[in-house]
From TrEMBL:
The active site is at D84, E177 (proton acceptor). NCBIfam families: peptidase-T, PRK05469.1, PRK13381.1. Residues 209-312 form the Peptidase M20 dimerisation domain. Gene3D superfamilies: 3.30.70.360, Zn peptidases (3.40.630.10). It catalyses: Release of the N-terminal residue from a tripeptide. One of its GO terms (molecular function) is tripeptide aminopeptidase activity. Belongs to the peptidase M20B family. It comes from Alistipes ihumii AP11. It is found in: Cytoplasm. Zn(2+) 1 binds at H82, D143, D200. This is Peptidase T. Coiled coil: none annotated.
Length: 409
């Protein structure tokens, strides 16, 4: 299968689009610039010969690779990826660089910054691969344009090689996944797949059907600003109260101290003045019971300091975002079994692990579309050390092609 050059060019073309989403926006998609790539994908899908290609008023792009003759009655499966990049770091003016036959050593990104094996030991796995890295000033966009490129490359290959038997395959591209709104208006019934796979994972072989239960929390502290020379027993410094709230949360339950199934509280924003301050948290846990316990603990901490500083001083708003997809996927073991077989046939050993995050697939699973997550070959998402392996991306395409065939057997 000789599609690596096509895959590489497609990926580099997609990362040139600035598709950063915006959590403060009240529109959908949250940024109009995401539509530039989404509309480009529509044009490309039509040019490849896909059918039922459309972009709906919310920016969702869908299309079909028609079933090969004799496979029309096979289950309809889908492949889904998101086009937006994280608001955590600049996503414009990306200048990717290829490293062919990576030697396994530290990688200079620019004159003052290197990606060191000491800091990222998983780099050793990719020795001999062709890597695509950043210039150290932006993210790369492999999350999830690697997935978009892999799905499109697989679809193009199937359309060009009708001798590969497969049922009807639905393709979907979504905006705003990075800010938790990716499937807010996704029409599962119209999409029409029985099962689907998000192509949004990382390390080679990752197969994920467990994810965090997730909530956002916003705390607002109303202080009392008094001239500091005359503030004794009068001032309430909102910034200090915010710090006090954070100190009540267990330090060992921060992202930098957790792994595997361990949940966390993550302070993602703190701003304000003496008069008023606000804090933004994300709360995560794989266990629904521990997830609910974390939310109660946060509420108890706020209540404690509200009693200390006076009712009305502190307000807390918690919003659930998504839940662990495992209970929605496990009743359909063939979804996982076929994915594992597809990987092995592509020369990849499956690595079943919980997602320490979330994907559109988690919410889609609760919307009636069981949707585990497949690897893409992207690593170190959301920052300047993001990179991807072109070799692993190729194996992701082969996995998608194998799945298409396996579901038709």
């Amino acid at each position: 299968m000789d599609f690596i050059e096509e895959l590489k060019e497609r990926f580099l073309r997609y990362v040139a689009f600035d598709t950063q989403s915006d959590p403060e926006s009240e529109t959908f998609p949250s940024t109009a610039k995401q539509l530039a790539l989404l509309n480009r994908l529509v044009e490309e899908m039509i040019s490849l010969g896909m059918t039922e290609v459309e972009i709906d008023p919310n920016g969702y792009v869908t299309g079909t690779v028609p079933a090969t003759p004799g496979c029309e009655s096979k289950p309809v499966i889908g492949f889904i990826a998101h086009v937006d990049t994280s608001p955590d770091m600049k996503g414009a003016d990306i200048r990717p660089r290829l490293i062919e036959r990576y030697d396994g050593g530290d990688i200079p990104l620019n004159d003052s910054l290197s990606m060191r094996v000491k800091d990222f030991p998983e780099l050793s796995f990719f020795k001999g691969h062709t890597l695509i890295v950043t210039d150290g000033t932006t993210l790369l966009g492999a999350d999830d344009k690697a997935g978009v490129a892999e799905i499109m490359t697989a679809a193009a290959w199937l359309l060009a090689h009708p001798e590969i038997p497969h049922g009807k395959i639905r393709i979907g591209f979504t905006p705003d996944e990075e800010i938790g709104r990716g499937v807010d208006f996704f029409d599962v019934k119209r999409f029409g797949a029985r099962f689907a796979y998000t192509v949004d994972g990382g390390f080679e072989g990752e197969l994920e059907y467990e994810n965090f239960n997730a909530a956002s929390a916003r705390i607002v502290v109303q202080g009392r600003n008094i001239h500091p020379g005359y503030a004794k027993d009068k001032m309430i410094n909102a910034l200090q109260v915010a710090c006090e709230i954070n100190s009540l949360l267990p330090a060992v339950q921060r992202p930098e101290h957790t792994q595997d199934y361990e949940g966390f509280y993550h302070l993602v924003g703190l701003s304000g003045t003496v008069e008023k301050a606000s804090m933004e948290y994300i709360v995560r846990d794989h266990s629904r019971e521990l997830f609910e316990e974390k939310k109660r603990f946060l509420a108890d901490a706020v209540a404690l300091l509200s009693r200390k500083y006076g009712e009305g001083t502190i307000s807390l708003t918690v919003k659930d975002q998504y839940y662990n997809m495992r209970e929605q996927v496990e009743p359909y073991p063939e979804v996982i079994g076929k994915a594992m077989q597809a990987m092995r046939e592509a020369g990849v050993e499956p690595v079943v692990r919980p997602i320490r995050g979330g994907t559109d697939g988690a919410r889609l699973s609760y919307m009636g579309l069981p949707c585990p997550n497949l690897f893409t070959g992207g690593m170190n998402f959301h920052g300047k050390f993001e990179y991807c392996s072109l070799d692993t991306m190729g194996r992701a395409v082969r996995t998608i092609l194998n799945l298409a065939r396996l579901w038709a057997e």
